[in-house]
Hints:
Elements: H1 9-12, H2 21-31, E1 44-45, H3 55-64, H4 79-84, H5 92-104, E2 117-121, H6 122-134, E3 140-144, H7 151-157, E4 162-166, H8 178-190, E5 195-201, H9 213-226, E6 229-233, H10 249-255, E7 266-271, E8 283-288, H11 291-300, H12 308-318, H13 321-348, E9 352-353, E10 361-365, H14 375-389, E11 391-392, E12 394-395, E13 406-410, H15 416-439, H16 449-453, H17 456-462, H18 473-478
Helix pairs in contact: 5-12, 6-7, 6-11, 13-15, 15-17
Bound molecules: pyridoxal-5'-phosphate.
Coiled coil: 171-198
Subunit structure: Homodimer.
Protein name: 1-aminocyclopropane-1-carboxylate synthase
Amino acid sequence: MEQPQLLSKIAMGNGHGEDSPYFDGWKAYDENPYHPTMNPNGVIQMGLAENQLTSDLVEDWIMSNPEASICTLEGVHNFKAMANFQDYHGLSEFRNAVAKFMSRTRGNRVTFDPDRIVMSGGATGAHEVTAFCLADPGDAFLVPTPYYAGFDRDLRWRTGAQLVPVICKSSNNFKLTKQALEEAYEKAKEDNIRVKGLLITNPSNPLGTTMDRTTLRTLVSFINEKRIHLVCDEIYAATIFTHPDFISIAEIIEQDTDIECDRDLIHIVYSLSKDMGFPGFRVGIIYSYNDEVVQCARKMSSFGLVSTQTQYLLASMLSDDEFVERFLTESAKRLEQRHRVFTMGLARVGIKCLQSNGGLFVWMDLHHLLKSPTFEAEMELWKVIIHEVKINVSPGSSFHSSEPGWFRVCYANMDDKAVQVSLQRIRAFVLQNKDLMVSEKKRCWHSDLRLSFKSRRFDDIMMSPHSPIPQSPLVKAST
Ligand SMILES: Cc1ncc(COP(=O)(O)O)c(C=O)c1O
């Protein structure tokens, strides 16, 4: 007799995407996490886009403002009111502070209406709510590649919506073009897929680049022409460390009045996970210019509200203009420095990255180390990097890259010493590989990789008195 299915299709399916290398890398790290003294041969987590460079500034502010926390002597008088409050509009002080912060992170060139601020559980929840508001099961969003791996989960899994890739290439630094958009749109139409929107991430994860004004104008024209929505993930709005400045879609629709735009089609997804370094607070924002979307999203936000304790604290912190100014300036400075140290370290061993001006990562080009120009070869190289070099980076394939050989490497979720250790490991690996290439008359790296761990040259590099690692993980792997 046929057994009844006990669980739902969602529960039984793989829509979450946990089986991808993106998450496998996290698992490898979880099983053997690097620690400078307790586990110096462990895996270094460079797959996590988290900004830990400015935590000290936030800690200082919290200590100087004990009344902003409801679990302190100075703030406990507000505990009961906060614990009881549960309106899904959120605290008005919180919405005002977030609207002001969003304006500040866009250079105060635009303003945001606090009444349009809808809360959600991080940008993750914001994307799902937006997708629920805009698309029916089977409908699709165009998404330029490479794109953030979590979108497959956030936009598709529970909503039944689809993502249609818009192919961007290294030949023009992965810039999104009108032609690529048209091609993707036409292809979807041929496949009988109804396109409901275009989703962009600006600044980009994983590229770390920002879109220029011309591109943004092209997008606005494109979506208006097709009568589809434009969802702009601006989660890295203030995670910019050098020129050019970030331009928000809000600036285009407010300032570029020469292009026609139906504002009902424009929606911004934001979060404090990156710009403030608060991924644990789960503060996500849906900012829509469409009244109906605001109303619907607000009703749906009941499933993922931000706790009032967090709202209360942030209302106070983000209203402190002097702190916000100092924080953002210092954050950009520290990011720039970290980015410079890391990319220069890579450049010294001949590794290039896509030139970027923001984000918490670099888009690293290792195509010259691939055995063949295929995604299988990319996966092989990734396995060596994770299991032997012991660095968790994310392969381009997990971001739907159209070209093999690119890897996203995060550099802001660790201290200076861990960065040096990671560079040392990469350096050792690349130099080893280079030696092999020469001595074996360019035989592929993979077949002789294990052999290479025992070579004299490798030991020279890793056991040098200047090496920050007492014992190389690669040496360990070879014994
Ligand atoms: C582009 C992008 N969107 C959304 C998210 C999810 O952010 P949150 O932690 O706010 O859910 C991330 C996190 O890495 C991201 O990079």
